[in-house]
């Protein structure tokens, strides 16, 4: 992995029911061990909108399958997911009238869910293939590739009906001796060694309109809603990737540079050097991530100030209070009391990178 230039982020909601499936089929201890080996906070399961490294997401799928000794694990997780599991991005796409328009929307706004990957609709003879291609991150991604197939199938069936099946399916990995497990579940030919995970549609199917049943299941979501749901969109690299990783690790009260460097595939000195090249320091990014999470916890929860302090990695109530006064000009308690009023002496400014 080459660090920031290839640091691909994906929202945690992309792993769907993976934690529950591991917990149900194995144990809570096994689940905790898998997350720990990927250096991910277990609290991530309750924060699905949090960006995380795609490499770590792939690692969760691979470790889960190995722990359960289950070749169909990735496919099982995907089969449990619906279009809504991916948030406003795919709901906006599913609100389109025709399948072709819906796929165009999904492709045009896929950056809202994941960076660095490629969702595309490509011509293959008299077919079109809806394909999701991910970069090579040096991780076994068989299970991750498999899990993408069912959500794509579900989306297409909103327009073509519940009984529709693709003429074939595609995956990136080379065929292994158990690939027929997935092939049998899909009941279609599985073509391996392709550029991504995909499903083949007949060209004429793109003009199909949503079925009457699926129309009742779709919320009206606008492009503005999608944009409002995107976090970190204005931060330049490498700050964007690192700030996402720092925010992720703060879920577990961790802010050390060693753990962050590991998650983005760099040594500590290399991380610091690349940040310096862009005019940032790791400490500045940690401060901003802590500030943003502190404000959210003060406004949206009833956690005590001490509990918030500890959750952000501060040793004492006093050290957190000093930092908060530096950020916002008032104490955390004063900010919380004033948060419901239209105007306060402690303005809720948004610090942006760049």
Helicity level: 40-55%
Strand order of the largest sheet: 3-4-7-5-6
Task: Report the average pLDDT across residues.
Answer: 83
Taken as a percent bin, the fraction of beta residues is 5-15%
Poorly predicted runs of 5 or more residues: 1-6, 225-233, 347-354
E-strand count: 7
Element order: H for helix, E for strand = EHHEHHHHEEHEHEEHHHHHHHHH
Radius of gyration: 22 Å
Q: How many discrete structural domains?
A: 2
Shape: elongated
Structural class: alpha+beta
What kind of sheet is the major sheet?
A: 5 strands, mixed
How many alpha or pi helices?
17
Question: Termini separation (Å)?
Answer: 26 Å
Report on the structure:
- 47% of the residues lie in helices and 8% in strands.
- The protein is α+β, with helices and mostly antiparallel strands and 354 residues long.
- A hairpin with a 2-residue loop joins strand 3 and strand 4.
- Helix 1 crosses helix 2 (28-37), helix 14 (282-300) crosses helix 17 (332-338) and helix 15 crosses helix 16.
Descriptive labels:
alpha+beta; Arc Repressor Mutant, subunit A; elongated; 47% helix; 354 residues; single chain
Summarize the structure.
The chain is α+β, with helices and mostly antiparallel strands and 354 residues long. It contains 17 helices and seven strands. The chain has two domains: 74-222, no CATH class; 239-338, Homeodomain-like (Arc Repressor Mutant, subunit A, Orthogonal Bundle).
SSE arrangement:
Blueprint: E1 9-11, H1 18-25, H2 28-37, E2 51-53, H3 54-68, H4 73-79, H5 88-94, H6 99-108, E3 118-124, E4 127-133, H7 142-160, E5 169-170, H8 179-186, E6 190-191, E7 197-202, H9 212-215, H10 223-228, H11 239-250, H12 257-263, H13 268-277, H14 282-300, H15 305-311, H16 317-328, H17 332-338
Parallel strand pairs: 5-6
Antiparallel strand pairs: 1-2, 3-4, 4-7, 5-7
Helix pairs in contact: 1-2, 2-3, 4-7, 5-6, 11-14, 14-17, 15-16
């Amino acid at each position: 992995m080459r660090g920031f230039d290839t640091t691909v982020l994906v929202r945690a909601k992309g792993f769907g029911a993976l934690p529950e499936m591991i917990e149900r089929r194995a144990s809570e201890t096994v689940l905790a061990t898998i997350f720990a080996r990927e250096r991910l906070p277990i609290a991530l399961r309750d924060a699905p909108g949090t960006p995380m490294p795609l490499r770590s997401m792939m690692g969760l799928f691979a470790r889960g399958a190995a722990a359960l000794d289950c070749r169909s694990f990735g496919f099982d997780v995907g089969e449990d997911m619906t279009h809504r599991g991916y948030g406003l991005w795919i709901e906006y796409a599913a609100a389109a009238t025709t399948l072709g328009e819906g796929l165009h929307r999904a492709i045009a706004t896929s950056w809202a869910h994941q960076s660095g990957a490629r969702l595309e609709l490509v011509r293959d003879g008299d077919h079109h293939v809806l394909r999701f291609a991910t970069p090579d991150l040096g991780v076994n991604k068989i299970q991750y590739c498999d899990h993408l197939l069912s959500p794509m199938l579900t989306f297409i069936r909103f327009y073509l009906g519940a009984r529709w099946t693709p003429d074939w399916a595609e995956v990136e990995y080379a065929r292994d001796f158990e690939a027929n497990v997935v092939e049998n579940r899909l009941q279609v030919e599985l073509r391996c060694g392709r550029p991504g995970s995909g499903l083949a549609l007949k060209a004429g199917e793109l003009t199909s309109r949503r079925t009457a049943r699926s129309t009742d299941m779709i919320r009206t979501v606008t492009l503005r809603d999608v944009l409002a749901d995107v976090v970190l969109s204005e931060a330049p690299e490498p700050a964007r990737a690192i700030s996402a990783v720092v925010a992720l690790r703060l879920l577990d009260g961790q802010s050390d540079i060693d753990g962050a460097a590991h998650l983005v595939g760099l040594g500590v000195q290399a991380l610091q050097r690349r940040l310096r090249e862009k005019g940032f320091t790791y400490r500045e990014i940690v401060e901003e991530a802590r500030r943003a999470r502190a404000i959210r916890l003060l406004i949206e929860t009833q956690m005590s100030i001490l509990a918030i302090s500890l959750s952000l990695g501060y040793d004492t109530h006093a050290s957190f209070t000093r930092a908060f006064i530096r950020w916002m000009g008032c104490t955390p308690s004063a900010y919380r009391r004033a948060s419901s009023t239209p105007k306060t002496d402690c303005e809720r400014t948004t610090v942006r990178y760049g």
